[in-house]
Specification:
heterodimer, A: mainly alpha, Rna Polymerase Sigma Factor, Chain: A, Arc Repressor Mutant, subunit A, 7 helices, 0% strand, globular, B: mainly alpha
């Protein structure tokens, strides 16, 4: 018979991609990502017994991952308010050590430069979540989600346009 | 660039991420649980050792001075305050540990803001300004009177003792206020961050 921990680890194993991606949009260096990854696992484990709706496991993991990451940012005073993307950004001093393609690094760099609220919204949009699901995870209205996504998309596109990088 | 092009690039990231094995995830969880339990028990132990140490000292000294009524009153009040403080701190630790992370971002921010606001700006948030000096005076008196081997009233009449008590009180007060202000400043900064994030969420909702 499987224990509750085995169930949890199986779910975690299947959904761990979410944790990695939330980490990527919030943290520049590997050791912060490792710490936060561990903290998210612990917070998920703590709230696992209270998870009633097993059909919304994805939403639960997104919510815990986003809230835990913001909590870590808060503790380390790294939150910056940005209404717009900066004119130019360091293409990714962030993720240089990761074995990602150039265009993926470019996209991550652009997301990294969004403000702390638009980051998770854009992540959920890129993960092809519906506006309803995004609204539920973030706790804002569907129309607000739409407005934020359109604005963030435009900012990302401007910065990802190959012309901006002389390609 | 087409809208879904962003999603296509994002999908590539998915395939480029190095996933951990179940064994590695289990190891990470076990390590984190161990670290958290150790940290929790460390704070708990310090809290209990200091409080019980003080309570034992107050009881023992009071028993040795059963004929000094003022000394007994002083120590009894201190025992009551220390015991209440211990119980409140145990409840607070438990409450902090039950923080729910699985709420929506907005609800989670509101939960954290309420918790911190209550602690930093609530009805009883300034109580420490009154309680700390009172406690310091009473603890100083309890220790000083006991080691002077004289009755409470007699010690209070001695000019030398009063000067010693005032100096001890001022040093203690400075150290306590300095430490508390540091903690409060850090938490107020945290509260401002959380409020700023909450404003970002609500401002955009209202502006639609």
């Amino acid at each position: 018979m499987k224990s509750i921990k085995d169930d949890f680890l199986e779910i975690l194993s299947n959904y761990q991609g979410i944790l990695h991606k939330v980490n990527l949009i919030y943290f520049k260096n590997a050791s912060d990502r490792e710490d936060n990854f561990q903290e998210i696992i612990y917070q998920l484990w703590k709230s696992f017994p209270g998870l009633k709706n097993k059909s919304s496991i994805g939403s639960w993991i997104y919510a815990v991952s986003i809230n835990t990451s913001i909590s870590k940012l808060k503790k380390e005073s790294r939150i910056e308010y940005r209404e717009n993307l900066p004119e130019s950004f360091d293409k990714i001093d962030i993720i240089e050590e990761l074995s990602l393609s150039e265009v993926s690094k470019m996209l991550l760099g652009a997301i990294y430069n969004l403000n702390e609220i638009d980051k998770p919204i854009m992540l959920l949009y890129l993960e092809e979540k519906s506006y309803d699901e995004i609204a539920q995870i973030i706790g804002i209205s569907k129309s607000n989600v739409g407005v934020r996504i359109n604005r963030a998309k435009e900012l990302l596109k401007q910065n990802l346009n190959p012309l901006n990088y002389g390609k | 660039m087409e809208n879904n092009e962003l999603q296509k690039i994002w999908k590539n990231i998915d395939s480029e991420i190095d996933l951990k094995t179940t064994g590695q995830l289990n190891q990470l969880l076990d390590n984190k649980i161990r670290k958290t339990i150790n940290k929790f028990f460390f704070i708990l132990s310090i809290d209990i050792i200091v409080s019980f140490g003080l309570i034992v000292f107050l009881i023992v000294t009071a028993l040795n001075r059963q004929d000094d009524i003022f000394y007994l009153i002083n120590n009894s009040i201190l025992i009551l305050i220390t015991f209440s403080a211990l119980i409140i701190s145990l409840f607070s630790l438990n409450k902090l540990n039950r923080n729910r992370c699985s709420l929506s971002l907005k609800d989670w921010l509101e939960q954290r803001i309420n918790l911190l606001s209550k602690w930093l700006l609530g009805k009883y948030s300034k109580l420490y300004i009154v309680i700390i000096p009172i406690l310091l005076v009473m603890i100083n008196i309890s220790i000083h009177v006991y080691y002077e081997y004289k009755p409470f009233v007699e010690v209070m009449k001695s000019e030398e003792s009063i000067i010693g008590l005032i100096v001890g009180f001022l040093v203690g007060l400075f150290v306590s206020y300095f430490a508390i202000n540091k903690i409060r400043k850090y938490q107020i900064k945290n509260l401002e961050f959380l409020k700023e994030l909450h404003t970002q969420l609500t401002f955009n909702s209202e502006s639609i």
